[in-house]
């Protein structure tokens, strides 16, 4: 089910309509022969200024994901990649597994989610004790911590940036992310993990890895790596961190 633009694979990428980062990060990686077709989940009210707003945002995602998957399947992709992350952490390990199962049953395709991709990446990198940051509110950060803990990691801290809207995730300045990573780093932390796919962080993670001397994992790097490796592709990419460069 490939085409002239993607003779090796076409990945269907499910993104919120507010997301401006995921497709950019995937295409910029320059994986030869791989194409991406986005299916958009309509987010009419992007407010996420508190726990209730965040739950309402997830309700919008859940109401529109079926249409997004329906639309992307018309491009006959080879795999579904979830270009949003909060929903994939919800309910811990079992919640993620159920979410993936629903998508596989609906699409008939293999599925990459942010939660599973981060888990696989951290195992590949040999990391156990992690610190995590997100653009989320506390209700979502608790689910992120729950997933990683149930997956066998020691979670030192989870810091949420508390972005007021879904669009504001893409507007967080670089210096603010530097500050957050510095606050999370510690001698006993094996890796710093970023979640929230509309947070542009892949290039910054590459720089911070060199500065800290340890893995700094951007979720868009993790999902791209997972989709490629699960699809039997061993392409190595510079500028996207140790994971895609060496593993």
What does it look like?
Helix content is 46%, strand content 17%. The protein has helices spanning 22-28, 51-73, 86-89, 92-107, 114-125, 138-150, 174-184, 202-212, 219-230, 242-246, and strands at residues 9-16, 34-41, 79-82, 111-112, 129-134, 154-160, 191-194, 216-218. The protein has 247 residues and is an alpha/beta fold.
Mean pLDDT: 97
Using the alpha-carbon principal axes, give the shape. Answer: globular
Q: Biggest sheet, open or closed, and with what strands and sense?
A: 4 strands, parallel
Approximately how much helix is present in the residues? 40-55%
- The helix/strand series, from N terminus to C terminus, equals EHEHEHHEHEHEHEHEHH
Model regions low in confidence, pLDDT < 50 over at least 5 residues: none
* Strand arrangement, major sheet: 2-1-3-4
Helix-strand category: alpha/beta
Compute the number of helices.
10
Spell out the blueprint of helices and strands.
Layout (H helix, E strand, L loop, with lengths): L8 E8 L5 H7 L5 E8 L9 H23 L5 E4 L3 H4 L2 H16 L3 E2 L1 H12 L3 E6 L3 H13 L3 E7 L13 H11 L6 E4 L7 H11 L3 E3 H12 L11 H5 L1
Parallel strand pairs: 1-2, 1-3, 3-4, 5-6, 5-7, 7-8
